[in-house]
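Good morning,

Attaching, inline, the backbone tokens for the sequence recovery test we're adding to the shared suite. The designed sequence is right after.
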């Protein structure tokens, strides 16, 4: 799967891309991430990528021409145009079904902007899919783009080892329940003990305990998920 990230701050992605899971996926050519600086598509002498809004008001607006020309140039470099995603709080909220849909694309172009907004003509010309990662305000789309990459690569075959296959994730395949409690060594810490059943070696009983714990947790913490299952 190929990602092209269009951003004013490509450096933000460097340490994330060097993280071991992603680094291995890139080395094994399962995932490819290319960073593009939108500023490289400015033509004026100050290389301006944003400007004050017509009509007045606070904040700056991303200029239409560098963004459109950056997207067109990046698209033109490969035969497959890819699916364009604009990261904006005005988009559809990202959830696991949306991640699964995005992971179905061979190539995603992730357009990051500053939060005050994009010139509306960017939407009119490029007609991107707009994605938000939640109802709060980020300074820009970069952290959201990393969330999209991180969630989608889990679904790329071979990126995760068999052992931590994404099919068991809390939100996968419409299961939509939270994970059961997990423990590892030591068996006792500050008087807190691991539940006996997990040390019993009885796999049927362990499975039952986990099922019950997952159900209780979901009921307590996210009853909305159970309602959606009905
Ligand atoms: Cl995608 N961008 C910004 N700027 N803020 C957000 C967001 C995106 N998703 C939630 N908040």
């Amino acid at each position: 799967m190929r990602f092209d990230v269009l951003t004013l701050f490509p450096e933000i992605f460097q340490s994330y891309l060097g993280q071991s899971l992603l680094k291995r996926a890139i080395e094994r050519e399962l995932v490819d991430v290319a960073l593009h600086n939108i500023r490289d598509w400015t033509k004026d002498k100050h290389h301006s990528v944003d400007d004050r809004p017509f009509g007045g008001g606070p904040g700056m607006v991303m200029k239409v021409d560098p963004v459109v020309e950056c997207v067109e140039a990046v698209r033109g470099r490969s035969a497959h145009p890819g699916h364009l995603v604009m990261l904006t709080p005005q988009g559809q909220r990202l959830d696991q079904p949306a991640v699964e849909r995005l992971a179905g694309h061979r190539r995603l172009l992730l357009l990051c902007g500053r939060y005050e907004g994009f010139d509306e003509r960017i939407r009119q010309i490029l007609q991107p899919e707009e994605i938000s990662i939640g109802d709060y305000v980020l300074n820009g789309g970069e952290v959201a783009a990393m969330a999209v990459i991180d969630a989608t690569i889990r679904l790329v075959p071979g990126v995760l080892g068999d052992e931590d296959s994404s099919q068991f994730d809390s939100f996968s395949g419409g299961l939509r329940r939270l994970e059961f409690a997990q423990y590892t060594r030591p068996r006792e810490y500050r008087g807190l003990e691991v539940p006996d059943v997990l040390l019993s070696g009885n796999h049927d009983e362990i499975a039952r305990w986990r099922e019950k714990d997952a159900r209780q947790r979901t009921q307590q913490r996210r009853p909305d998920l159970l309602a959606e299952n009905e």
